[in-house]
Amino acid sequence: MKTWLTDNLIDDPREQTTAATDLLLAVGAYIAIWRLHGEPSWRRQVWQSAFGILVGSSVLGTIVHGLRLSEASRERLWQPLNLLLGLVLALFATGAISDRWGKRAGQWVLPLLVIAARGFVWLSRRVQRGFLPFILYEITVMLTALVIYIDLDRHRYPGARNITIGILITMLAAGIQTSSLELRIGKLPFDHNGLFHLVQLTAFPFLVEGVRVTLAANPES
């Protein structure tokens, strides 16, 4: 039986698997929000907001990759999608800085990181390899967070090791997204975007459990 959805699904099987894995990311991010539920605090709000925005960006990604859209419609959706991803990274960096230097440092740096995210999104629209500047922004943010959590782990900061592992997996995923890698898993074809989503999903348990431990160990922050 045909429905509006089946009539408008994109034909490319690689785009179909990318859309499906984007939807899985949205579900994973929603579960992360639930797992991070607890006493209200600045840091908890930062991390839950990061995963909440990721839900929205992943749903948009599902639409962009999964449905037949005009080029104009696709472009209109890519702009807010990239901005949402930039905000996720800004909040991630804010969480790391708050863990290392405290709530006030996180509150001070968050507006600057949001401005930087918007700048990279703007730049992405104006260069030939559109998504590359954003990937560079993501790598910069993740390298900064990685250095912070490696240092915190050296000082036995609760949860830092799990977060470090999650960051390393996220950086691997970002590297895959910039490549032209394609794989077939069973009968399903995956391009670099779909593979990026699958690898990123494996980082979620480490990130979420690490953050849960840091929040429980520092409830006053």
TrEMBL record:
InterPro entries, A to Z: DUF6962 (IPR054235)
Keyword Transit peptide (UniProt): no
Keyword line: Membrane, Transmembrane, Transmembrane helix
Keyword Protein biosynthesis: no
Top-rank taxon: Bacteria
Residue spans crossing the bilayer: 49-69, 81-99, 105-123, 130-150, 162-183, 195-215
Signal peptide region: none
Name the record gives this protein: Uncharacterized protein
Taxonomic source organism: Chloroflexus aggregans
